[in-house]
Write a structure and sequence with these properties.
Number of domains: 2
Shape: elongated
Strand order of the largest sheet: 7-6-8-9-10-12-13
CATH class of the largest domain: Alpha Beta
Number of strands: 13
Helix content: 40-55%
CATH architecture of the largest domain: 3-Layer(aba) Sandwich
Oligomer: single chain
Largest sheet: 7 strands, mixed
CATH topology of the largest domain: Rossmann fold
CATH superfamily of the largest domain: Response regulator
Length: 299
């Protein structure tokens, strides 16, 4: 099922509202990319300010029911917009767990919601691992099946194509994360962080780092932040290029030429970050050609 809706009559300049959860550089970079791609009148609001902590005033002033499309950046912005409009297409980004905000796929189709995920395709992450540490064949993942079952399956398929195997643990509560990590001792050669909000927390990552160094198990980080903190490497999306990708998708939605069957699309452009200090601790030598491709190197 595709979301193909002709929103703009010929000669009519599209009206697009952009709503940011807060002022953050990645949001601003994405918005720059978006504006450079979309031919429309664009107005912007930031919610969750000191003067407007729940965003109601900012949303109310924008009169979102009168625009042709809303581009949302961040979970809080998506939640505020989702509760404020019912018949205006929404395109979201920078939302880690959208289903908890917008409901089932059927509801998303009815609400005309599309989004660009924060997921780096596991194919890309695992392929990079085989170039950095080809002997690491058993890949650990931990996730909440209610949130990340599809991504876990995609990871299994990607691993099998590369001659790797997946060792997995499922959890239903954050408190189970530490035990799940411990149970992987001796069973995995590397650990892939999935963008799962049940698993990811400050405490679980700190314990995962300890596990990593004790067991010589490199971590494929979820973002540049985790590579800086001690994961071996991370592939992350480029915020401005993600904004341009969102602009291209918005243009198709406005013109009624969006024929994608999936509600979500993955980012198309990535940045490669590697932590040399972590590699040394784990006894991993980074090939020179791989190191030369890195956008950011932590030493």
């Amino acid at each position: 099922m595709a979301l193909a809706i002709n929103l703009c009559a010929p000669g009519h300049a599209a009206e697009v509202a952009t709503v940011k959860s807060r002022e953050l550089k990645p949001y601003s970079d994405a918005l720059t990319g978006f504006k450079s791609t979309v031919d429309a009148h664009i107005k912007t609001a930031v919610i969750l300010t000191d003067d407007d902590p729940d965003g109601k005033a900012a949303i109310g002033q924008m009169n979102l029911q009168k625009v042709d499309l809303v581009f949302v950046l961040g979970s809080d912005a998506l939640r505020a917009v989702r509760n404020s409009v019912s018949d205006v297409p929404i395109l979201f980004s920078f939302v880690l767990d959208p289903e908890t905000i917008i409901g089932s796929p059927e509801q998303q189709y009815q609400l005309k919601i599309r989004g660009i995920t924060m997921n780096v395709p596991p194919e890309e992450q695992l392929r990079m691992l085989t170039q950095i540490a080809p002997g690491h064949k058993r890949i650990g993942i931990i996730y909440d099946a209610a949130k990340s079952a599809q991504l876990a399956e995609r990871t299994r398929v990607a691993a099998a194509r590369l001659g790797l195997s997946v060792v997995e643990k499922t959890i239903a509560e954050k408190q189970q994360a530490i035990d799940a990590i411990t149970e992987m001792s001796g069973k995995i050669d590397a650990f892939l962080m999935l963008p799962d909000t049940t698993f990811i927390s400050k405490e679980s990552f700190q314990y995962l780092l300890l596990f990593s160094f004790r067991n010589n198990v490199p971590i494929i980080g979820l973002s540049d932040k985790y590579a800086r903190l001690g994961a071996l490497f991370a592939l992350t999306f480029d915020s401005e290029k993600l904004g341009k990708q969102a602009g291209e998708l918005a243009t198709k939605m406005l013109a009624g030429t969006d024929t994608e069957k999936s509600l979500y699309v993955d980012p198309q452009h990535f940045q490669f970050t590697i932590n040399i200090k972590t590699a040394r601790k784990l006894g991993i030598t980074i090939p020179g050609d791989v190191l030369n491709r890195a956008d950011e190197v932590y030493e």
